[in-house]
Amino acid sequence: MQNLLTKIFEFHSPKITTSNIIKHFTKNVKGANALKEFFFFLEKATDDFGIAHFPVKEFADFSIFLTSNGNNDLRKSATLLLCSMYKYLGEPLKRFLSEIKEVTMGEINEEFAKISVIAKDDAQSLKAKIAVKGQALQD
Fold first, then answer.
1. The pTM is what?
2. Any idea what the Cα angle at residue 77 is, between residues 65 and 16, rounded to 5°?
3. Taking a C-beta distance cutoff of 8 angstroms, is the pair 42, 59 a contact?
4. 13-22, 69-78, 126-135 — which is least confidently predicted?
5. Domain of 129: which CATH number?
6. Which of 48, 55, 66, 135 could bridge to 130 as Cys pair (CB 3.0-4.6 Å)?
């Protein structure tokens, strides 16, 4: 499944594709394993394609949605995705996270403190590992 999604991201917009998948997942998917796997895929895809190709607000909202879930694995997965985003965005990401409960945000901040934020002028670290082609170039 991850290979299929990666190919779709390459030839279409990762932003639009991800937004549609997130809408579907928040309304229809209740299985913890499916959600957890999707989070792991998004974390990897963020590193592969670069954060610029993804909907930051939707990622944050999706993560917020799952940080209040009773399943510990889902909360950890949401935190991992937020950490992946924080690596690229740094402190500005926090303005999207105001709805997270204070205790949970404290735990997330502890994880953020362990991350070295990539400098905006570090072109090599910011360069996407997988190029986006096709329709995505027109977005």
1. 0.78
2. 65
3. yes
4. 126-135
5. 1.25.10.10
6. 48
Query: 3-state class of 135 per DSSP?
Result: helix
DSSP 31: -
* C-beta neighbour count of 51 within 10 angstroms: 18
Tens of pLDDT, residues 83-127? 999 998 999 999 999 999 999 999 999 999 999 988 776 545 555
Q: How many CA atoms lie within 13 A of 85 on its CB side?
A: 29
Write out the H or E segment, with its range, that includes residue 87.
helix 72-89
List the structure tokens of 44.
């990897």
Total count of residues recorded for the chain: 139
Is 90 exposed, middle or buried (CB count within 10 Å of its CB: 0-12, 13-18, 19+)?
Answer: middle
CA of residue 23 relative to chain centroid, distance: 14
Range(s) of the domain holding residue 57: 2-138
Rounded Cα distance, 1 and 128, in Å: 21
The residue whose two tokens read 């510990």 is 72
